[in-house]
Write a structure and sequence with these properties.
With 236 residues, the protein is mostly helical. The protein has helices spanning 17-24, 28-36, 41-51, 55-58, 70-79, 83-98, 104-120, 127-141, 148-165, 172-184, 191-198, 208-235. The N and C termini lie far apart (53 Å).
């Protein structure tokens, strides 16, 4: 696939009015990341386009024949505007072409691309998924000292990615990603604190139970690792 031949545009805050309008459409967590991190104008515009579909998830039509189940509405959040998937991948290619080091922009685009893939295709796991999850893990771990907004983006994306990619059963790379977050960010070990962070992004009450199940499985693995480590220490 040929790399898109366009130059990414980065602006410093205070942003011009048109960029401020895009940022105003974003949930708080992504708006904070846009303001405090080095996100390109193209990335901010991509997130703003996704934000336009968020009301579809928990605001069904009033007419009975128009009521859509929550899962379908969530799918439409990412899948009706198919260009969101294309733009996320193209932006990743632009980042690669520009030679920019791994950062939160790579993480956001990979997270979107993975979510879109797992909502729009029948074959849930293939080589594209494996490579994407590996890339997401690599890019997250490459951010040595993430800021608070960047940390919150990582926590949110890791939870949603873990949930979406395991619809047909556990997926090791997705578990590895959530395990890394639990190990690296102590705040993620409390469900109450994790919810408080994720509510700053696209959060839907209809999926809270499913998200909590993913988190609890992650915590079970965390406590198992703790037990193994303590056992190994006692053996020395």
């Amino acid at each position: 696939m040929a790399f898109p031949n366009r130059r990414l545009q980065y602006v410093r805050h205070p942003f011009p009015p048109d960029i401020c309008r895009h940022v105003s459409l974003l949930p708080t967590g992504l708006a904070e990341a846009a303001i405090s991190s080095n996100l390109s104008v193209q990335c901010i515009q991509l997130l703003a386009s996704v934000a336009q579909w968020a009301p579809l998830v928990e605001t069904p039509k009033t007419q009975p024949e128009q009521i859509i189940d929550p899962q379908t509405r969530y799918c439409r959040l990412f899948c009706e505007p198919r260009e969101c998937s294309r733009d996320a991948v193209n932006l990743l290619l632009c980042l690669k072409r520009s030679g920019l080091p791994s950062g939160i922009e790579h993480v956001i685009c990979l997270g979107l691309a993975i979510a879109i893939r797992h909502l729009s295709g029948e074959n849930r796991t293939n080589i594209f998924d494996t490579a994407s999850l590996e890339a997401l893990n690599t890019n997250i771990k490459a951010i040595d000292t993430p800021t608070v907004p960047e940390s919150e983006v990582i926590i949110w994306i890791s939870l949603v990615t873990n949930w979406r990619t395991q619809c047909r059963g556990p997926l090791r790379r997705a578990d590895d990603l959530l395990d890394y977050v639990v190990d690296s960010f102590p705040v993620s070990r409390s469900w109450g604190k994790l919810v408080a962070i994720c509510r700053k992004f696209w959060w839907f009450e209809c999926f809270q139970e499913d998200w909590e199940k993913c988190w609890r499985r992650g915590m079970e693995r965390y406590h198992s690792r703790e037990t193994d480590e303590n056992s190994n220490k006692q053996n020395y």
